[in-house]
Amino acid sequence: MVLNSLEFLLVANKGACLKSFIPALKGYAKSLARTALRHARQLRQDLPFHHWNVKREDGQLSLHGVKLSELRQRFSFPLHVVDEERLICNVHACQHEGDVATYPVDLFYSYKTNPVPGVLRMIHDAGAGAEVISEFELWLALKLGVDPSRIIYNGPAKTDESLDEAVRRGILAININHREEIQRVRAAARRVGGIANIGIRVVLPGGWAGQFGIAANDVESAYREAMSYPELNVIGIHCHNGHIYDSEQLWINSVTKILNILGELSNSLGFIPKLIDFGGGMPIPTTRKLSWSDMRQSESLSIEPAQPNPDATPSLEFFSRSAGALTREFCLARGWPRPQIVLESGRGVTGNAQLLLTEVLTTKATSQPYSYAVLDAGVNIASIVVHEFHQVFPVNDRPGAAGNDQHLYRLAGPICHLGDTLYPSWRLPQLVPGDLLAIMDSGAYFIADSCSFSFGRPGVIAVDAKGSVRELRRSESFEDLLALDT
After folding, report:
1. Burial level of 170, CB count in 10 A (0-12/13-18/19+)?
2. Which of 297, 357, 358, 466 is deepest in the core (most CB within 10 A)?
3. How far apart are CA 156 and CA 134, in angstroms?
């Protein structure tokens, strides 16, 4: 059949120049590849609503009884919507009070993940501390009234001014990022006449290296140096591998390696930690990183990436309980006092507690298997979806439309740039201008990575379990975009 079709193409193109034949052959090859790959695997399936607190009621998507389409009457779009109930549940899941089998585990939320003050206040009200990585984030935590004993300062670029402030305030820990920082923190302590509480960031094999942390084979000498200075109170260890822990064993291996390093430090230096900071990397169950082949097939062959399997993802409770249990077993075997155990989850806490509402501005038919739908949200505010799976739902059902009436769309943003494509391939009911879509799991790095590229950034609202709506951040106006210009 394939040979007959190729023969037909050759006959049809007899006498035509090779230049005109090649595009036809390429198009046919793509069609064959597309058909073969689609038969080789199942089509993408929408993830069930029960993974979030959203529901389809009377043909409309709602959150705690609030019809999302009706928010268009009160707020500018695009718009981030925070689910307060899910947010607080995630905070509590990362915390563990301890029992006969586990030590307590504390959450210090990663400010860089979602630096919206209204969101951070809710997280702190639920009992979490602050993990900050810049002078701004340290300032913000203090401005929000976070007790200094509930602040951990990480990152490779701490300014002298911020180190002075951190020591002066007596924050819980300044985690030394690299060897040269030891002398900088010591100098800050001497300038303000205080003692700096410090941990040291360790890089495990296979974890983030580069500008981050101190290699495991150099850790002992770094601790030895830091412990020799009276201005430094060495209390702990820090490790953030940069992995997304999508399997339980990956997390257990990481925790075990950190504890083993502490055992070696105890044997050689007599160091016993008061603080063990296991870092972050807790996953969002309903997202996954797209592979290179996922992105190429979606772009070139119009094949949608497969959905993740949320039921196979470790729960937030697993991370906190296992960290507490493994640390308890380790410490009791050595007769150590109980340390403070910290998780720095950001993604896992706010990721699935927020969604982004966007409007279809226009559509465009093409000769390709897909049509374009141009949204008011682009890579300026949702760049994460280019390399990460995020579920998209239509907010409203169209009256009379068949449930299986699906069309393939390339969802593009509003920026005048070819790179502004969010979803190269995604099946949806037929779209028309004015339709609303919900991009799920927008609570991790959407806002932190956003920029004002020709358009203002979206506002943020929160919906509580009773359906009350309040504004956390208004949308940027034209005046806001020029506010710093003189």
Report:
1. middle
2. 358
3. 9
CA distance 51 to 308: 12
Tens-digit pLDDT profile for residues 141-172: 999 999 999 999 999 999 999 999 999 999 99
424: closest CA among 268, 337, 302?
Answer: 302
- Please name the residues in contact with 428: beta carbons below 8 A apart, sequence gap of 6 or more: 373, 392, 394, 406, 407, 409, 437
Tell me which architecture the domain covering 85-351 has in CATH. Alpha-Beta Barrel (3.20)
pLDDT digits (tens, 9 = 90+) for 228-238: 999 999 999 99
Q: Would you say 391 and 304 are in contact if contact means Cβ atoms under 8 Å apart?
A: no
At residue 99, the 3 state secondary structure works out as: coil
CA angle, residues 284, 289, 294, in degrees to nearest 5: 140
pLDDT for 10: 46
Instruction: Please list, in sequence order, all residues whose beta carbon lies within 8 angstroms of the beta carbon of residue 77, skipping any fewer than 6 positions away.
Output: 357, 358, 359, 376, 436, 458
125 three-class SS: helix
**Could you tell me where the beta strands, DSSP code E, fall in 9-125?**
54-57, 60-63, 66-67, 79-83, 106-110
Angstrom distance (rounded) from CA 344 to CA 349: 10
Q: What's the CATH superfamily of 51-81+353-480?
A: Lyase, Ornithine Decarboxylase; Chain A, domain 1 (2.40.37.10)
Pair of tokens at residue 27:
């198009």
User: DSSP letters along 280-324, please?
Assistant: --PPPTT-EEPPHHHHHHHHHS--PPPPP-GGGSPPHHHHHHHHH
Q: Greatest CA separation found in the chain? A: 88
Query: What are the extents of the domains in the chain?
Result: 2-40, 51-81+353-480, 85-351
Domain pair 51-81+353-480 / 85-351, same fold: no
Residue 133 to residue 113: CA distance in whole angstroms = 11
Q: For residues 457 and 480, what is the distance between their CA atoms, to the nearest angstrom?
A: 10
Residue carrying the six token digits 């300062």: 153
And the tokens for 303?
């094949």
